[in-house]
Sequence to fold (238 residues):
Amino acid sequence: MNNGDSNNRSAYNNMAEYYYEDIDKKPFNAYYERPATLSLIPSVDGKIVLDAGCAAGWYTNWLLNNGAQVTAIDLSPKMVKMCKKRVKGRAKIIQANLSKPLDFLKDKQFDIVLSSLTLHYILDLYSVMEEFYRILKKSGAFVFSVHHPFMDFSYFNSDNYFSTELLTDYWQTPMGKQKVQFYRRPLSKIILPLLQSGFNIDKLLEPMPTEKFKIEDSKTYKKICKNPQFLFIRAIKE
Ligand SMILES: C[S@@+](CC[C@H](N)C(=O)[O-])C[C@H]1O[C@@H](n2cnc3c(N)ncnc32)[C@H](O)[C@@H]1O
Fold:
């Protein structure tokens, strides 16, 4: 386990029912992260897809509803339970740590790997991206979103942009304060593991929030219009 894993497993266990019930009503998810990620996902009809960091299964369910055959992975046993509850036996859902080799998945098994807001929990991006490259078919797509390096650098007042650091945040939730730990690293340390694994970058987004975000929460909308929160990439296995 890397430093934050046991903490995050317990925090996400605590938040699993909340994610299942409420997370998709949050403007950050519904009107910022989801539209950008969905715009990068190629047609999934008839495709074999891995949802890496599935949480309570919003994307797993979306992929299934759009014709994909899905395997989903999450570190948190309670998130796995919530994902199973949501998709009712239509996907294979596995409790596993993305920081470890995915040796239960075959070479060239998937057409698409999707990982939404999960890779900032992983210290060694080289290993996980090499694993995603291995399990993708030729021309397969790897779509992911992560915390934008600018956001964490400014929010945490970091003093060295070029260092990789484990950050600790406390999220206010209906179950009380949850301690969550993740890695901030410079942009090059997100891009270079991708290129070194053999991927080509096909698209990169620093999107604006949608108009619905403005209606729901105009103050945060204005902030995000000037301060990127997440980074979105589609890469292709050539
Ligand atoms: C922000 S949530 C992901 C949200 C989800 N993709 C969605 O869009 O609904 C992050 C998820 O990553 C999982 N996670 C954190 N570290 C992980 C690891 N090392 N391996 C696998 N999953 C991990 C957490 O348990 C949590 O469910």
The chain has a mean pLDDT of 96. The radius of gyration is 17 Å.
